[in-house]
Amino acid sequence: MVPVEFYFVLSALLFFIGVFGFVTRRNLIAMLISIELVLNAVDINFAAFNRMLFPDGQLEGFFMSLFSIGVSAAESAVAIAIIINVYRNFHSDQVNSIENMKY
Which stretches are transmembrane (predicted)? Predict the structure, then answer.
């Protein structure tokens, strides 16, 4: 059985990779993928804390993870629709092209 601390280390690693990718990338799709990495790190934390706090089998953390996965799927669909609309208007998926948007 894998110790709970390994899940926390994996979650922290995924979180920092996601934050680093979001800060350094200029491509909208890469930024969306980085946000998804951060959300997956949160899901791993929910499951790990559930395992640590409720070792007898209660599933509160797992239900929160399922809810979070559903919310992140909806967020991804909306974000991809926005990125497609930006690409149609500016013919680029770089963040620099959006800076010139008019009010």
Answer: 6-23, 28-49, 61-87
How far is it, in rounded angstroms, from Cα 100 to Cα 84? Answer: 17
By the 8 A CB rule, do 14 and 41 touch? Answer: yes
Q: How far is CA 67 from CA 16, 19, 76, 88, 92, in A?
A: 23, 22, 14, 32, 33
C-alpha R_g of the chain? 17
User: Measured at the alpha carbon of residue 49, what is the angle toward residues 43 and 52, in degrees to the nearest 5?
Assistant: 145
Model's pTM, two decimal places? Answer: 0.82
pLDDT in tens, 27-77: 989 999 999 999 999 989 988 888 888 877 777 778 888 888 888 899 899
CATH for the stretch 4-101:
1.10.287.3510
